[in-house]
Amino acid sequence: MPALFHLEVHTPYRLFFSGEVESISLTLMDGEKGVLANHSPFTAPVVASLLRVKDDQGLDRTAFITDGIIEVTEIKTMLLVDAAEWPEEIDVERALTVKQKAEENIKNAILTFENDSAKGKLRRAELRLQVAGMKQETVF
Questions:
Q1: Are the C-beta atoms of residues 68 and 79 closer than 8 Å to each other?
Q2: Does 121 fall in a domain?
Q3: What is the rounded CA–CA span in Å between residue 86 and residue 24?
Q4: Which has the closest alpha carbon to 18: 50, 56, 46, 44?
């Protein structure tokens, strides 16, 4: 049986996940990162991405997470994010609406920060739709 480690995923509103897992993967600012038991300690910023979790039964689950921070220690791995959602928690209609509005805002953006904000919203909407089972082509 593979070695396990304790994972906690916190949002400002709830404890999203707490349990023993085999592995996780997510996206940091410098790229994709995987964590297994006995990983060397580190702390790093996380970007909106898919969180892939292999649980203690060897089952794979995927969730949507927003920007945050990950801390890996000898005791546990803790992920602090603004939002986290399992596929069944995602409001697909809302994500589709946000995606459409973000695409319009990108086309009509005049200032750089407007364009950057719209691209962030588009990326989060596309990730949510991907987790919910709807294939999306990412613009980035």
A1: yes
A2: yes
A3: 15
A4: 56
pTM above 0.90, yes or no: no
Plot region of 48 (φ>0 → left; ψ -120 to 50 → alpha; else → beta): beta
The dihedral built from the CA positions of residue 85, 88, 94 and 100, taken in this order, carries a sign that is: positive
65-90 residue pLDDT tens: 999 999 999 999 999 999 999 999 99
* Residues spanned by the domain of 75: 5-87
> Is the C-alpha dihedral spanning 11, 13, 17, 19 positive or negative?
positive
- Give the count of domains, the chain: 2
Distance CA 89, CA 1 (A): 31
Same domain, 69 and 100: no
Burial of 41 (0-12, 13-18, 19+ CB in 10 A): exposed
